[in-house]
Amino acid sequence: MSNGRQNALVPVRDLAPARRASSKVFDARAAYAESGPGADPYTLVNAETSLDDRAQVERFLPDILGRALARSWIDSSFRAAFLSDPVRTLAVHRIHLPATIRIDVVTEGQTRPMVVVYEESAKGAPRRRLLYLQLVMVAGK
To answer: InterPro entries from the entry (predicted)?
Structure first.
């Protein structure tokens, strides 16, 4: 033991975690391959998701739309489908919304697409904006 460790009030060796060689390293590619053929590596949700009311839409849809926007940056076919009909694209990916919810993807005048979610109440009544979402890139150190 070095002199600093000998004079310590608390034995250092007892507090230090044991270092062991890991026998099994997590391999993401192997885990994806085991998930079965045709599995989607960029899935938006893990299970069938049905948002039944405005409160659920406001609570859960921002996270789902964030994943959809991120996927649209790397998957051109998903981007084309999402830009043309976002509600239908979400339904194809097992995310079901109330009939009163409308989603617009704004690309004009934007460097990045912005997703705006509206709720339509009665015919002729103005639609209410529930939320909007736009991915922003931030540099960090």
So the answer is: CN_Hdrase_a/SCN_Hdrase_g_sf (IPR036648)
Residue with tokens 């009544």: 125
CB atoms within 10 A of CB 28: 8
Angle at 129 (CA atoms; ends 76, 81), nearest 5 degrees: 15
Per-residue pLDDT tens digits for 100-140: 999 999 888 877 788 999 999 877 788 899 998 887 767 77
Show the DSSP H helices in the chain as ranges.
3-6, 12-15, 28-34, 54-74, 76-84, 86-92
Give the residue from 129, 57, 141, 43 showing the smallest Cα distance to 99: 57
Please name the amino acid found at residue 41.
Answer: P
Listed in order, strand segments (DSSP E) in the chain are 49-50, 95-96, 101-106, 114-119, 128-133
* DSSP secondary structure letters along 113-128: -EEEEEE--STTSPPE
CA 72, 77, 82, 88 torsion: positive or negative?
Answer: negative
Q: Give the whole-angstrom CA distance, residue 125 versus residue 41.
A: 41
Residues 6 or more apart whose Cβ sits within 8 Å of residue 104: 86, 115, 116, 118
**Tokens coding 141:** 């150190």
pTM of the model: 0.67
